[in-house]
Write a structure and sequence with these properties.
Length: 107
């Protein structure tokens, strides 16, 4: 599956993802600018992304726990998600995301 990720500098990256992997893992393993400090344990918000409006329905709504984590960042938007909570699947082939400024390694 393919994921289109726009980084904090506005550069577009086409990434190859694997079924069942967390989107955060794909972004991190391709070397993009994402902290992902907790490794997917839902105990931080350092893998914060903005989901393209066309994909919001496909990724679904965040859980209450995810919303609590998102409340800890200042750049949250209505399309904010934690990329560790989105699992790669054929249904998400072509997913479009933008890395939030708060997810940058130097943020």
């Amino acid at each position: 599956m393919k994921i289109s990720v726009t980084d904090q500098a506005g550069e577009l990256h086409e990434l190859e993802g694997l079924e069942g992997w967390r989107v955060m893992e794909v972004i991190r393993d391709w070397g993009l600018n994402i902290k992902a400090e907790c490794g997917g344990a839902l105990s931080c918000a350092t893998c914060h992304v903005y989901v393209d409006d066309d994909w919001l329905g496909a990724v679904g709504a965040p859980s209450d726990e995810e919303e609590d984590m998102l409340d800890s960042v200042g750049d949250v938007k209505s399309n904010s998600r934690l990329s560790c909570q989105i699992l790669c699947s054929d249904d998400l082939d072509g997913l479009k995301l933008t890395l939030a400024p708060s997810a940058a390694k130097d943020a």
